Amino acid sequence: MSMMKWIFVLGALVAFSECLRVPLIRGKTPRQKLQEKGLWEEYRKKFPYQPMVKFQQQQNGAESMTNDADIDYYGIISLGTPPQSFRVIFDTGSSNLWVPSVYCTSSSACNNHRKFNPDVSSTFKSTTEPVQIQYGTGSMTGILGYETLEVGGITVNNQIFGLTETEGQFMQYMTWDGILGLAFPSISAAGATPVFDNMMSQGLVSQDLFSVYLSRESATETKPGSVVIFGEIDSQYYTGTFSWIPLTATTYWQIQMDSVTINGNVVGCAGGCQAIVDTGTSLLIGPYNDIQNINGWVGAYTNNYGDAVVSCGNILSMPEVVFHINGQALTLPASAYVSQGHNSCTTGFYNGGGTAWILGDVFIREFYTVFDRKLQMVGFAPAV
């Protein structure tokens, strides 16, 4: 191959690499915003967090979701020609893409967000097929359509997505507009093809995987730190080597976990359990007894709302919590699982009311995570 051709190929690869990244903004959570306004106590009573609702099996064109007031990572996508921009959660715990639309006019939830207008897009294709998202505290209803999607600098043609007609009331306090699901087609509401499946089938990614780095620092739309990378693993975001874990189901990104220990003592998941790796859940969710046990070991007490409160001055002396997965020990220091709130500190361990574990952002922040569709594995490496 001539030198000119090598230069061309290298330039194409560099351009391809740069085009597959979606910066994630980490702003204030709805909880923080409501606390600042003195509205948090009223809000949490009205819209309780029910983390396992999201993982109920979808059926009849419906998917489930709950009110997570601690979600603070979102990225920018655009739909339509000319493009209309939206802030979305890149959610490995669901499979559908949906955004608010001009069809939704009845609630402040819709009116507080950017709304897609199909009438001004030359590439929109309508359907008459309904879609429903059932929340733990209400529901969103809408209709499906097809549109040109731009994400990470690449273009996905004929992407099916939901346009909202109604939204749950609690959505008015969410910074993000909609959701881009990155789980498997088998749980997609109404059988809609997920975005990453279209990326693979349209030849838009060099490898059938995507990776996620969640920064520990806050970031803005002009200075992002976190990123979703489609089709690539980037060595600048991790140290050491990956722990590769095979999936136990191809619905969510579900894996087998062996145990959870503190100072060598098994404090949760005794005898093994199932865990779902979910970028769309902010906390680390587990069964009631296990979570109570872990919070007891780290010196937390549970308040009336289920928050595990600790003394902010004790963080340096609190123990590490170790997750044993596929023979590997993945460690969370107290600095990873304790967060500074408006007036107090809380742990990221939360009772989900079910039997499964959800490894949410509290966990993923410590580990650069690869979601491999071809090999059906998840990879964890210590994040920088």
TrEMBL record:
Kindly identify the residues recorded as the active site.
D91, D278
Question: Which principal EC class is assigned to this enzyme?
Answer: hydrolase
Lineage, top-rank taxon, reads Eukaryota
Q: Which UniProt keywords apply?
A: Aspartyl protease, Digestion, Disulfide bond, Hydrolase, Protease, Signal
Cleavable signal peptide: 1-19
Query: What are its E.C. numbers?
Result: 3.4.23.1
Q: What GO molecular functions are on record for this protein?
A: aspartic-type endopeptidase activity
**PROSITE patterns reported in the protein's UniProt record:** ASP_PROTEASE, PEPTIDASE_A1
Q: Where's the Peptidase A1 domain?
A: 73-381
**Which Pfam families does the UniProt entry name for this protein?**
A1_Propeptide, Asp
User: Which processes are annotated in GO (biological process)?
Assistant: digestion; proteolysis
**Gene3D superfamilies in UniProt:** 2.60.40.1960, 6.10.140.60, Acid Proteases
- Disulfide bond residue pairs: C104-C110, C269-C273, C312-C345
Q: Which SUPFAM superfamilies match?
A: Acid proteases
PANTHER family recorded = BETA-SITE APP-CLEAVING ENZYME, ISOFORM A-RELATED, PEPSIN A-3-RELATED
Function per UniProt: Shows particularly broad specificity; although bonds involving phenylalanine and leucine are preferred, many others are also cleaved to some extent.
Q: Which family does it belong to?
A: Belongs to the peptidase A1 family.
What protein am I looking at?
A: pepsin A
Annotated organism of origin: Alosa alosa (allis shad)
